[in-house]
Design a protein that fits this description.
single chain, Rossmann fold, methyltransferase, S-adenosylmethionine-dependent methyltransferase activity, alpha/beta, 30% helix, 200 residues
Length: 200
């Protein structure tokens, strides 16, 4: 699955394949939450006929709309935009959940997903010191290696640092709000959550 996004690399793009592998066969409608300038949305569009992408940052949405990619870009607040409940086969989000209240965001994603649909998230959380120091140092070393080989693309979207929720808190929220979800902590200072909404 390839699109013309150039040879971009950063910690978020590194985990796009994890999102794309989670897309179920036969998916018709996907939502990209916090789409920025649309890189993931364009990748999703290669597998899903209708992709909607939403972000609060006007410059990012304006940049995304320059691509002839047949994605429906929305400038707005994901938490309040009037999407139809249970209307998406796939909801994806990369590095956006820490820009909102995490529990509210997860619940909103859950409610917009149709039964049997897939939610796939890659996010940032706050490390807990000193417990996370060895893992974080290893992540810095590996990230430096990747940047030396691939360069580093700096996205134009606003950043939030430090993330308000820790990794253990994020794991607990996922277990509470998305029962049965698969939470994984990744080396390059990210976590992922993949969840299939139960039928019925």
């Amino acid at each position: 699955m390839t699109v013309q996004n150039g040879n971009r690399w950063n910690h978020n793009i590194h985990y796009h394949p994890r999102i794309l592998r989670a897309v179920p066969d036969g998916s018709r409608r996907a939502l990209d939450v916090g789409c920025g300038e649309g890189m993931l949305a364009r990748e999703l569009r290669q597998a899903v006929p209708h992709v909607t992408a939403i972000d609060l940052d006007a410059p990012s949405i304006n940049q995304a709309r320059k691509y002839p990619d047949n994605v429906d870009y929305i400038l707005g607040d994901f938490l309040t935009h009037p999407f139809e409940p249970a209307s998406f086969d796939v909801i994806a989000s990369v590095a956006a959940l820490h820009h909102m209240d995490a529990a509210t965001g997860l619940a909103r994603m859950r409610d917009l997903l149709r039964p049997g649909g897939i939610l796939a998230i890659v996010g940032l959380a706050r490390s807990v010191m000193p417990n996370d120091l060895p893992r974080d140092l290893a992540g810095v070393v590996v990230g430096t290696f990747h940047r030396a080989r691939k360069g580093h693309w700096e996205h134009p979207s606003p950043t939030v640092w430090p993330p308000p929720v820790t990794y253990p808190q994020m794991r607990a929220l996922a277990a509470e709000i998305l029962p049965g979800s698969r939470y994984r902590r990744h080396l390059l200072l990210r976590y992922s959550i993949v969840w299939r909404k139960p039928q019925g």
